[in-house]
Design a protein that fits this description.
- The complex is a heterotrimer of chains A (167), B (102) and C (407).
- Chain A is built from 6 helices and no strands.
- Chain A is mainly alpha-helical.
- Chain A has 2 domains: 80 residues, NADH-ubiquinone/plastoquinone oxidoreductase chain 6, subunit NuoJ (Four Helix Bundle (Hemerythrin (Met), subunit A)), CATH 1.20.120.1200; 41 residues.
- Chain B has 3 helices and no strands.
- Chain B has one domain: Helix Hairpins (Orthogonal Bundle), CATH 1.10.287.
- Chain B has 102 residues and is mainly α.
- Chain C has one domain.
- Chain C has 14 helices and no strands.
- Classes of the chains: A mainly alpha (167), B mainly alpha (102), C mainly alpha (407).
- Chains A and B meet through helix 1, helix 2, helix 3, helix 4 and helix 5 of A and helix 1, helix 2 and helix 3 of B.
C-alpha cells in the first residue's frame, strides 16, 4: 500500500464523488463546485502519471478560467433552484440500471485489459516534459497549434458579437 | 512505469465518462448540461494522459492540450448563447426551449 | 525510527510544513502591525502604541477580538458556499508559500538529507504557483455570491473580474524571466541570476535590469491581483461597504484578512525570486564580513530594545520589551556563530528583500488614491496586457537573434 496507490484511490474516489455530486446537486452552483473538485482531483492524477505541466495547465486554464466563466454565468443568470420534473418511466426504471451496467462493464473490461507495449520509439516521457512537449508542439504539431490559436480568435469574436447589445 | 497499473486509470476514465453521460441525459438546467460535457471531456483527457504514460510518448499530452483549448473556446461561445437564450425564454430549463420541436 | 529512515521525504516535508506554517502565521500577524505603524507614521501620527510596547501586542489583541466576536450568518445565505469561501481563500494563500525556496538548495536537514529551505522543489514551480493563485478567484466570487446581499454580490463580481483580468498580464510579464533562465524551476532561475555584469563588475546580474519592463508590469499586475490600493475599489470601505466580505464577521473575516496578506507575501516572494535574485546576496562571495551582517543587525536591535526598556514607563510594556531584548540579543549572538551564520545567509537576504517590497506595497497604500472600476479594467486590458506582450516579443526576439547568431 505505497503512497502512489493510496493517492490514486483517494483522488479517484474524490473524482467519482464529485461527479455524483454534480448529478445529485439541487443548485447549479453546487454542481459547479463539484466539477471544480473533479478537475482538481484529475490534476493530482496527472501529477501521479508523470505529467506535471498538463496538471498545471489543467488547473490554470480549466479549473481557474473556464469554471470561473461557468460560475459567473450561474451567478448572473440567477434563475433559482432546478425544477424536478418527472421524466418518463422508461428512463427511470430501465435507463439508469442500464447506464450503471454499461459503466461497470466498461470499467471491468478496461481494468483487465493490457495496454500494448511501447509502440515505436516516440518521445519518451522524461523528467523535463515541458521541453519535450514544446518541441512536439512547435515541430510536429505546429499546424494544429496555429489552428487552435485561430479557433480562440474566432471564439473571442463570436462571444463579443453575441454579447453586444442591439442598438 | 507507475506503480498503479494504467488500466486502473482507464477504468476511472470510463466511470467518469459514464457519469457525465448520465448527467447530460437526466439534468434539466442547461448550464448543468454544459458542465456534464466538460466532465466528459475531462474523462477523455485522463484516458489520453494514461495512454501517453502507457506508450511512453508525449503525443498524448499534446492532444490533452488541444482538448483543453477547444473546451475553452466551446465554453465561451456556448455560454454566450446560453445567456441570450435564457434572457429570451426567461428560464434555464431545457424543457422550455422547445421551439424547434415538431 | 525505521519509518523515518524509510520515508525521509515525508517526514522532512511534515517538519518543514509545520515550521513554515508557524513562521508564516506569525509573519502575517506582524505584517498587519507593520502596515498600521508605517501608514500611521507616513500620515504623521502614531499607530498602535498602547497594547504592548510600540503596539507589538496589537496583533494578539486583534486575534482575541476576532475570536470572541459574534458569528453572524446572513439569512438566506447559501450555507455551504458561505463557509467554504474563507477557508478556500486562506488555504490557497498559504499553499503557494510551500513552493518558494527561502535559501540555497545545498543546505540539507541533518539526518534526512532533504533540502532545508523549500518544501516542494518541483520542475515547474512557477506554473504551480500561478495555478494556486488562479484558484484564489473562487474565494472572492463565492463569498460575494453566498452572502445573499447586493453589496457583496457586486463587490465579489467586480473583484473576481479584476483578478482574472490582471492574472493574464501577471503570467505574461513573467515569461521573459523564464526565457532568460531557460527553466520554470525557482532554483534554476535564482542560480541564473548569480554573478555580476561583464562590463560593470559591481552590479549583480539580477533580472531587475534586463527585464525592467517585465518587473514593472509584474508589480502593477500583482498589486491588482491582491486587491490592494490603488486597485482596491471592490473592497474599499468607503466604496462598496467593504465589498465581498461585508456579511462576514469574526473569525471568517479574519480569515479573509489573513488571506489577503498571505497573497501579498506570496507575490512579494515571487517578485524577489524572479527579479531580485532570491536568496542571493548583492555583495560578492569574497566579502566574508557579510556573514556577520544578520548577527550584527540583531545585536544592534537588541541594544536599542534594551535602551528602550530602560526608558519605558509602564510595567507590562517593560516586561515585554525585556523579553524582546533578550530574544534579539540571543538570536544575534547565535547568528554570530560561523556555522549558523553560513546557513542563515540565504534566508536573511530573502527576508530583507521581501521586507523592502512589502514596505513599497504599504507605502503605496498610504500614498495613492484608488482607481475607478472602469479605469481599472481598461488599464488592465488596454495598457498592461499589450505592454506585457511587447516585453515578451522583445525578449523572445532578442533571444532568437542571439541563438541563431551563435549557431
Amino acid at each position: 500500500m505505497s503512497l502512489p496507490v493510496i493517492l490514486f484511490f483517494l483522488c479517484g474516489a474524490l473524482a467519482v464523488a464529485g461527479a455524483i455530486l454534480l448529478i445529485a446537486a439541487r443548485e447549479p452552483i453546487h454542481s459547479a463546485l463539484a466539477l471544480i473538485l473533479v478537475m482538481v482531483a484529475l490534476a493530482v492524477l496527472y501529477l501521479l502519471l508523470g505529467a506535471p505541466f498538463v496538471a498545471a495547465v489543467q488547473i490554470i486554464v480549466y479549473a481557474g478560467a473556464i469554471m470561473v466563466l461557468f460560475v459567473f454565468v450561474i451567478m448572473l443568470l440567477n434563475m433559482g433552484v432546478e425544477e424536478r420534473t418527472d421524466f418518463s418511466q422508461i428512463a427511470k426504471y430501465f435507463g439508469i440500471p442500464l447506464g450503471g451496467v454499461l459503466i461497470v462493464w466498461a470499467a471491468y473490461w478496461l481494468l483487465h485489459s493490457r495496454p500494448a507495449a511501447a509502440i515505436g520509439t516516440g518521445s519518451g516521457m522524461e523528467a523535463s516534459s515541458t521541453r519535450g512537449l514544446s518541441t512536439l508542439l512547435f515541430r510536429q504539431y505546429l499546424f494544429p497549434f496555429e489552428a487552435t490559436s485561430i479557433l480562440i480568435l474566432i471564439a473571442i469574436l463570436g462571444a463579443l458579437v453575441l454579447a453586444r447589445k442591439e442598438e | 512505469m507507475s506503480v498503479v497499473p494504467v488500466s486502473y486509470y482507464l477504468a476511472l476514465s470510463a466511470v467518469l465518462f459514464g457519469l457525465g453521460v448520465i448527467a447530460f441525459v437526466f439534468k434539466r438546467n442547461i448550464i448543468t448540461i454544459f458542465m456534464s460535457i466538460e466532465l466528459m471531456l475531462n474523462a477523455v483527457n485522463l484516458a489520453f494522459v494514461a495512454f501517453a504514460r502507457a506508450h511512453n510518448q508525449l503525443d498524448g499530452l499534446v492532444f490533452v492540450f488541444f482538448v483543453i483549448v477547444v473546451a475553452a473556446a466551446e465554453a465561451a461561445v456556448g455560454l454566450a448563447i446560453v445567456i441570450m437564450i435564457a434572457q429570451n425564454r426567461q428560464s434555464l430549463s431545457v424543457e422550455r426551449m422547445n421551439l424547434l420541436k415538431f | 525510527m525505521e519509518f523515518i529512515s524509510q520515508h525521509p521525504v515525508l517526514v522532512a516535508s511534515i517538519i518543514k510544513i509545520a515550521v513554515l506554517l508557524f513562521i508564516v502565521m506569525t509573519a502575517l500577524a506582524y505584517l498587519t502591525w507593520m502596515e498600521r505603524k508605517l501608514i500611521a507614521h507616513i500620515q504623521s501620527r502614531w499607530g498602535p502604541y498602547f497594547v504592548g510596547a510600540h503596539g507589538l501586542l496589537q496583533p494578539l489583541a486583534d486575534g482575541i477580538k476576532f475570536l470572541f466576536k459574534e458569528d453572524v450568518t446572513p439569512p438566506g445565505a447559501d450555507k455551504f458556499a458561505y463557509l467554504l469561501a474563507p477557508f478556500l481563500a486562506l488555504s490557497l494563500g498559504m499553499t503557494a508559500i510551500a513552493l518558494i525556496p527561502f535559501g540555497p538548495p545545498s543546505v540539507l536537514i541533518p539526518f534526512l538529507n532533504q533540502q532545508a529551505f523549500s518544501v516542494a522543489d518541483v520542475g515547474i514551480g512557477l506554473m504551480m504557483v500561478f495555478a494556486i493563485t488562479a484558484m484564489g478567484v473562487y474565494g472572492v466570487a463565492l463569498a460575494g455570491w453566498s452572502s445573499n446581499s447586493k453589496y457583496p454580490l457586486m463587490g465579489g463580481l467586480r473583484s473576481s473580474a479584476q483578478m482574472i483580468s490582471y492574472e493574464v498580464s501577471l503570467t505574461m510579464s513573467v515569461v521573459g524571466v523564464v526565457l532568460v533562465a531557460g527553466s520554470l524551476n525557482f532554483n534554476e532561475i535564482i542560480s541564473n541570476q548569480s554573478g555580476y555584469w561583464h562590463y560593470v563588475p559591481f552590479i549583480p546580474k539580477w533580472n531587475f535590469g534586463p527585464q525592467i519592463i517585465g518587473f514593472l508590469c509584474y508589480l502593477t499586475a500583482a498589486i491588482a491581483e491582491t486587491n490592494r490600493v490603488p486597485f482596491d475599489l471592490p473592497e474599499a470601505e468607503t466604496e462598496l461597504v467593504a465589498g465581498f466580505h461585508t456579511e462576514y464577521s469574526s473569525f471568517k473575516f479574519a480569515m479573509f484578512f489573513m488571506a489577503e496578506y498571505a497573497n501579498m507575501i506570496t507575490v512579494s516572494c515571487l517578485a524577489t525570486i524572479l527579479f531580485f535574485g532570491g536568496w542571493l546576496s548583492p555583495f560578492p562571495d569574497s566579502w566574508k564580513w557579510q556573514l556577520f551582517l544578520p548577527g550584527a543587525g540583531l545585536v544592534l536591535l537588541g541594544i536599542y530594545c534594551a535602551w528602550d526598556t530602560l526608558t519605558e514607563m509602564r510595567g507590562i510594556a517593560r516586561l515585554q520589551l525585556s523579553v524582546v531584548t533578550l530574544l534579539c540579543l540571543g538570536g544575534g549572538l547565535l547568528c554570530l556563530v560561523p556555522q549558523v551564520a553560513q546557513v542563515i545567509q540565504g534566508p536573511f537576504w530573502f527576508t530583507t528583500k521581501i521586507l523592502v517590497i512589502l514596505f513599497f506595497y504599504i507605502w503605496l497604500r498610504a500614498t495613492l488614491p484608488r482607481f475607478r472600476y472602469d479605469q481599472l479594467m481598461s488599464f488592465g486590458w488596454k495598457l498592461l496586457l499589450p505592454v506585457s506582450l511587447a516585453n515578451l516579443v522583445l525578449t523572445a526576439g532578442y533571444f532568437a537573434f542571439k541563438w541563431t547568431r551563435h549557431g
